[in-house]
Structures are given as C-alpha cells and as structure tokens.
Amino acid sequence: MITNTELEYKGDLYPSKIITYKHEVDSGVFYTDNSVILKLTVLRDSLIRFRYTAKGYFSNDFSYAIDKGHSHGYNFLEVTEKEDYYQVKTSKVQCRIQKADMRVSIFDLKENVILEDELGFHWEESYEYGGNIIKMSKASKDGECFYGLGDKATQLNLKGKRLENFATDQYAFSKDQDPLYKVVPFYIGLQNKQSYGIFFDNTFRTFFDFCSERRNVTSFWAEGGEMNYYFIYGPQMQDVVTTYTDLTGKPELPPLWALGYHQCKWSYFPESNVKEITAKFRELQIPCDAIYLDIDYMEGFRCFTWNKDYFPDPKRMVAELAEDGFKTVVIIDPGIKIDTEYSVYKEALEKDYFANEPMGLI
Fold first, then answer.
1. Do 233 and 92 touch, CB atoms closer than 8 A?
2. H helix count then E strand count, the chain
3. pLDDT tens-digit readout, 28-83
4. Model confidence, pTM
5. Are strands 327-330 and 290-293 parallel, antiparallel or unpaired?
C-alpha cells in the first residue's frame, strides 16, 4: 500500500474527499474540498464520459475528435447517494464514485467489476511546460488483454508495454520502435470475453502503460490539457468499436479500388521502374489496384512538380497505368520547400499562406 507520505514525496497530487455534488440532466458533477471537479456524463447507456479538472473550474469544452452528430441518448439514468459513494446507474452499467477520494469503479448489472481505478485521477505540476501533467491509473485483472493505439510495431496484445502517442516521421522503423506515424488514443480491454474501450481525448503528447511499470496496473497520462476520457462498454468487442466510431465519426464509404492491394515503397523511379513493377504484378497474376510514387517523382523535392528526366510525360504514364488497372497515387508533403526560384514557395510567401510563429516568423 502507498501511504500519503509516499504520494506527497512522489510529487503527485490527488483529489481529497467529495464535499458536494449536483445532478444535471445527463450528468453528475462532483466537487472535492481541494478544488477537484469530476463531471460524469452519460451519453448512451454504455458510453460514459469522465472529465476532471484540478483548478476548480472547467475550460471551454472543445474537441477535434468528437463527431458533433453522434447519437446521444439513454434509456435509463439514476444518480443516488450511498453512505460511502455515489452511484450512477444506466440500463447497461453502474458506476460508483467513492466519497473519500473520488476513485471510480464500473460494474455490469450483475455486480461484476468491468473497470476500476487504482490510484485514479492524479496530477503533477509541470514546471517545464506550465500547467499540469495529468494522470489516470486503473487496476488490471489477471489475464486481461489490451489492443489498439494506432501504429505500434509490437505484438497485437499490448500488455506488458509502455507506449507513447506523438505522431512522428519514423522512416525505416524497427520492431518495438515507438512512436510512429499514426496515433489513436483509444484502446480495448478484453477479459473473459468481456470488452470495454477507453478513448483518451487529449491532443498533448500522451503515454500508455499496460502493466509494464506495475504488474496489475494500467495507466495513461498527458503532458498537459485535460483528463478527459470516454468509457465504452461492449460487452462484445464489435459493440465497443461500433460505439467508438459513432462517437468519433465514421469514414465515408471509399471506392472499391481503395480496398484492394496497394503497392508502395520509397521509392519507384524512373518511369521504366514503375512499369517494370506493375508489369510483374500482372505477369504473376497478383491482384493490385494502386501503385504509389514517393518524393523522387518530384523535381528537387518540390511539391506539385514532376522530374521530367524520370517522368517525361506523367499524363501519358498515368493513363497507361489506368488502362492496365492501376490507380496512380503520388505523395504530397505538408511542407513546402524553401526555394526563392520555386513558384509555389514565392506565391505562399507573397500571400502569407504559411503558418507563422507568434512573432510572425515562418
């Protein structure tokens, strides 16, 4: 057991006892005597949002990730006060918030624990970045498995791993190298065929520890922002994914060719090499719907240009590849090359298209 002295020594701060609460239609708002507030919002019977602040008030509620048109409504919601805890009950789950320390436990309707706080919400003052490093730790059961987080060059089950979410250009990455290109702060926990999901809606550099530092503890934290996460109950894994994609938005239905096999590497050039690759696919009767061209198709790595030595007639080449059943996909970088002879750079400079620093410098 960790004593209060040890917690203070570690430099982390924790909610104290809850002194009051109020019920606001679809939410319960809980206040401690050291200015921590928890707002628990029931979005659906199996979807609950947990939003914490340690400064006595919430900042403006805003998210880049949540689909404003997601379905919102529940069949049953009841908030009751017990001797030691508050209980929020829906038609799918029941949630208990301990009065002594604001720790949260979530049960199914048969009183089986789905997920419960270990230390729960806590935070550390950040002298380097300002604000707080916000943290959450959950108890993990024996045999529990974890999946998700986007690009991770590791085994499918993330248990035993400590991972970082911070989108990074990592060409030629190796096994277990982290972080990588794509980050999705969403994971699924699975135990005894019962699934739940956690979506951590925070845009700062975030970290996830799946029983790596401590055997039966899963935690996630961020270098700033708000402790704002969504709990999704399955119990089937497909139910979790369906609710998550409803919350964050479903993609448009792609064209059929986009679901086929795509051949991509850094990099195919000149045109003869591209044609050699595509011809081999057809010769070997390997299905392929798209061929990718990386930055070497450009002239001097300038976006929106073609290297005419490598690709003398791009329009003809793309048309010929299309006749052979290939879509041609060319990379476009988000950065524009600094080159005073480059028309795109000159136009962007003249018309102030570039993102600027506070002092007005590019």
1. yes
2. 5, 20
3. 999 999 999 999 999 999 999 999 999 999 999 999 999 988 888 999 999 999 99
4. 0.86
5. parallel
